[in-house]
Structure formats: structure tokens, C-alpha cells
Amino acid sequence: MSAELRPELERFLESLNIQTSCVEHPPVFTVEEMMPHLQDVTGAVTKNLFLKDKKKKSLWLVSARHDRQVNLNDLAKKLGVGSGNLRFADEATMMEKLKVGQGCATALALLFDKDCSVKLVLDQDLVEGGHPMVYFHPMTNSATMGIRPEDLQRFLKETGHEPVLQTFE
């Protein structure tokens, strides 16, 4: 599984002098399962969706604030892939591209998308909402890692992933 890649992620973040804070918890597969473990964190907790368009030409990772509604039809229109064309990608594709399985999708896994074939859609609020930290799984769903928004942007730049900023109401 992907947990063994967590040290590699942590080394990469350290090499960029990016400070993180981590909350260890039992494995969780939904935001609802995760939230009780994160009651003491300050900042924005994310939910992450790994999607493909119907023609399977594009892969998208959507990182939004956990309390946002993500309407796939609306998002497809905004991204120009046509309404009804976004759907969840299968776990095998996620393992191949991001090295994580179900319940572990995370923007931090873009480190392992070496050919930059996954496009990141980022909730604008995560980077412009004044949050001290934004929280993602660090390659495993048994922990949640906080990273400063400006460090997240630097991480994404270093991995070659320019996020598409979207608003989710």
C-alpha cells in the first residue's frame, strides 16, 4: 500500500524546508470518519476526489474544503469537459498515477505523478481563505498532515502541478 511512500513525501517536504504538523488516527475512508480525529486542528480540512472524464483523456484530482459540495456536472462545465462527463476514476488508475488506494487520495500524492498527467483542481478557499493550515492525508488514510497554504503552493510548483483554482459554494 501507499503508507510506505509517506517517508519519501516527508523527505521531499523537508528538502523544501516545509514544516508540517501531523495527526495520527485509525484508518478512515470518509470525511465523516475523519473529522472526530481532527477536532483540535486549526485550518481547513480537505476532501479529495480522483476523477476522469468520460472519454478517459484527462485525469483530475479535486481538493476542496471538506464541507463544500462538489457538483460533478457543474465542475465539468467549468473545466470545459462537458456536463455529465466527469466520473470517479478506478482505484487501479489512482494506484498507477498517484501511488495511493481508495480513501487515500491527496494533493500530496502529486509528488508521484512524475509525468504530470493528473490535473489538480484546488478549492480557491484553501489558498486564499486565510487558513493557517490546510490538511491532507500524507499517502495514508491513517494520518492527516497540515501544511501552510503558501507551502502547499510551493510544493505543487516543485512537482510541476499548476492548480486550477475553483470556487465551491
TrEMBL record:
Domain YbaK/aminoacyl-tRNA synthetase-associated: 25-155
Molecular function via GO: aminoacyl-tRNA deacylase activity
SUPFAM superfamilies: YbaK/ProRS associated domain (SSF55826)
InterPro entries in UniProt: ProX/PRXD1 (IPR040285), YbaK/aa-tRNA-synt-asso_dom_sf (IPR036754), YbaK/aa-tRNA-synth-assoc-dom (IPR007214)
Domain of life: Eukaryota
PANTHER family (alphabetical): PROLYL-TRNA SYNTHETASE ASSOCIATED DOMAIN-CONTAINING PROTEIN 1-RELATED (PTHR31423:SF3), YBAK DOMAIN-CONTAINING PROTEIN (PTHR31423)
UniProt family annotation: Belongs to the PRORSD1 family.
Official protein name in the record: PrdX deacylase domain-containing protein 1
Organism listed in the record: Cynoglossus semilaevis
